[in-house]
DNA sequence: CCGTATCCTTAACGATACTG
DNA sequence: CAGTATCGTTAAGGATACGG
């Protein structure tokens, strides 16, 4: 079966393969890990510090998922002590671009959103 | 306290207010509901059909959250039978733009991602 | 038609302890 | 250093029934 034979992906369709993929990318930790790798290659412990609040378990799990999806590359440098570098693949870089735009827009919109929440909660 | 006094929002900080907001926007249903409203105003039942697989409960809850965040506007038309229209606010429109870019990019990347997954699963 | 309330099941998550 | 294993807790979600 060639790619051309596949129906076009549609996130609105219940069983479309894009749904779980989208979750991996936009989920609680996926988006932050991808964004953390946008500028540069990083080690496990660096990511752990940068993505504040993530547990070792979730970081490990998130990185594995993103690697499986072909967004993140994992490179083991055989040294003592062990040293592992994580970086974005070409696909990862393409996808992180609109993601960064979204994160940045959300950040600058936070004051406006907080104001909306307060106003909303006040009137009820 | 004026906006200028607030520290800049940073999604990487554990307790930053942007974290839950980001979840509302990029979560399992939030992103799809926002995207469904990108082109036009829609009714509850229309959204329910369009966002395939969402339950009434989750659609209701998602719309409430997005309304509270100031991204979605809810308009009740007092008629019988009742009629409710959902639309994006100005802020909603701004945020949905990079979101649509991301969704669309994920959709076209699905074949590449599936291939990566198969290759990854094969070699272990 | 547009939801909310209730109940229940499952999946996500965090903390901790431990290994190559 | 870079994880994995296990356990217990919490939050998310689905199904159904009912109400405005």
In short:
The first copy, chain A, has 124 residues and is mainly alpha-helical. Chain A contains 5 helices and 3 strands, in the order H-H-E-H-H-E-E-H.
Give the helices and strands, then pairings:
2 copies of one chain form a homodimer.
Chain A: H1 18-26, H2 30-36, E1 42-43, H3 44-50, H4 56-68, E2 72-77, E3 83-88, H5 90-122
Antiparallel strand pairs in A: 1-3, 2-3
The structure holds a DNA duplex (20 and 20 nucleotides).
Give structural notes.
Chain A is mostly helical. Chain A has a single domain (3-122), classed as Winged helix-like DNA-binding domain superfamily/Winged helix DNA-binding domain (Arc Repressor Mutant, subunit A), CATH 1.10.10. Chain A is built from five helices and three strands. Chain A has helices at 18-26, 30-36, 44-50, 56-68, 90-122, and strands at residues 42-43, 72-77, 83-88. A three-stranded antiparallel sheet of chain A has the order 1-3-2. The longest helix of chain A has 33 residues, at 90-122. The radius of gyration of chain A is 18 Å and the shape is globular. The mean pLDDT of chain A is 94. The interface between A and B is large, with 56 and 56 residues. The structure holds a DNA duplex (20 and 20 nucleotides).
């Amino acid at each position: 079966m060639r790619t051309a034979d596949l129906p076009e992906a549609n996130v609105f369709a219940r069983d479309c393969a894009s749904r779980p993929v989208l979750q991996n990318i936009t989920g609680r930790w996926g988006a932050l890990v991808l964004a953390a790798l946008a500028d540069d290659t990083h080690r496990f412990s660096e990511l752990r510090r940068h993505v504040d609040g993530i547990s070792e378990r979730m970081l490990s799990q998130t990185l594995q998922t993103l690697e499986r999806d072909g967004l993140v590359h994992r490179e083991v440098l055989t040294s003592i002590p062990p040293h592992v570098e994580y970086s974005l693949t070409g696909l990862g870089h393409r996808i992180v671009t609109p993601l960064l735009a979204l994160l940045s827009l959300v950040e600058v919109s936070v004051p406006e959103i907080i104001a909306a929440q307060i106003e909303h909660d006040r009137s009820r």
